[in-house]
Design a protein that fits this description.
single chain; Glutathione S-transferase Yfyf (Class Pi), Chain A, domain 2; 44% helix; 12 strands; four-stranded antiparallel beta sheet; alpha+beta
């Protein structure tokens, strides 16, 4: 997909993400996806998954809840699409996975966990809910409207679900790391590795921090505070990686997950790569071209055809307000 800056390439990529995942990679405010002055918007996509036809539709409205259909059947929620169609996206703001705070990395790897281990997809949500309940119990106990005993059941659940979540994250990193390291090396980032920082919480450890937690009305131990270090040799790329290295890191993560999903499901995910070529030299573009060619359907944006990493099977030229 080619066109000048500001022509709407990213908008089309965003529409593909909304149509296949039920939400935008840019914002959770659906109203921002509707044209100024309009009251509704709709994305309709048709294609094939393996040998089966697929038709999806997502309708957004300022006056009603978001609606989604898959092959004519209404889905309970639009976000159900993500369990039916796998889409991975690279946008420049995804560099926050590397250079942002721990919350950005936790969120990214928990999404990867959900895609790679669907049976455990709700673990991060369930754990977050238990921590919220424990924090509420801590506030009530600190205010004297409840007893410390009321915190204990939530402590036990936080330890159990927290341990399960840490294990699931470690398994996710273990699955991703070989491909991540290999692809990063091919892109010129040697010694790339993933390191999880944090241990499974226990009831004893949480109880030992009870006084502190009561004082601060928050749970001070558990995977909601953990981090994943993205390394190149001994260097932590958050603080000691260049902008180009951080871009390569995110690309390597995305392509490693795409490989895993394709191997496990026999269907490659849709890849959306927005402005992926910035800061990549000629040799790295050639490597990216080969890697992308090994994947499934990939949509790449660039300002001109010569900047694409490979000869496209289909070229869409975007001008202000139109595409052809």
């Amino acid at each position: 997909m080619v066109g000048p800056n500001g022509a709407g390439k990213t908008n089309l990529l965003e529409a593909l993400h909304v149509g296949t995942q039920g939400f935008s990679p840019r914002t959770r405010a659906d109203a921002q996806l509707i044209r100024f002055g309009a009251t509704a918007a709709r994305v309709t996509l048709t294609g094939r998954r393996d040998t089966s036809p697929v038709e999806v539709g997502v309708t957004l409205s300022t006056a009603a809840a978001k609606r989604a259909t898959l092959n004519g059947a209404r889905l309970a929620t639009a976000e159900q699409l993500r369990r039916e169609i796998e889409t991975l996206v690279f946008t420049p703001d995804r560099l926050s996975i590397v250079k942002g705070g721990p919350a950005a990395r936790r969120a990214y790897f928990d999404r990867a966990l959900a895609r790679l281990q669907p049976a455990r997809a709700q673990l991060p949500v369930e754990y977050a809910g238990v921590v919220a309940q424990r924090n509420a119990a801590l506030r009530r106990a600190a205010a004297g409207v409840s007893t410390r005993d009321a915190v204990a059941p939530w402590t036990e659940q936080a330890a159990a679900l927290g341990s399960d979540l840490v294990l699931a994250r470690l398994e996710t990193l273990s699955a991703l790391e070989p491909g991540f390291s290999e692809i990063a090396g091919e892109l010129g980032l040697d010694g790339a590795a993933l390191a999880y920082e944090g241990d499974p919480p226990s009831v004893a450890e949480l109880e030992a921090r009870l006084e502190r937690d009561l004082e601060r009305a928050t749970t001070s131990l558990g995977p909601h505070l953990h981090d994943v270090r993205l390394l190149a040799g001994e260097r932590d790329l958050r603080g000691f990686g260049s902008q180009g290295e951080q871009r390569l890191t995110v690309l390597a993560l995305l392509l490693a997950e795409a490989r895993l999903l394709a191997d496990r499901n026999d269907v490659a995910p849709l890849l959306l790569l927005d402005d992926v070529l910035s800061e990549l030299d000629t040799s790295r573009r050639a490597v990216l071209s080969r890697l992308v060619g090994e994947m499934g359907q990939t949509v790449v944006t660039a300002t001109q055809r010569s900047a694409l990493p490979a000869e496209p099977a289909q070229l869409v030229e975007v001008e202000f307000g139109s595409a052809r």
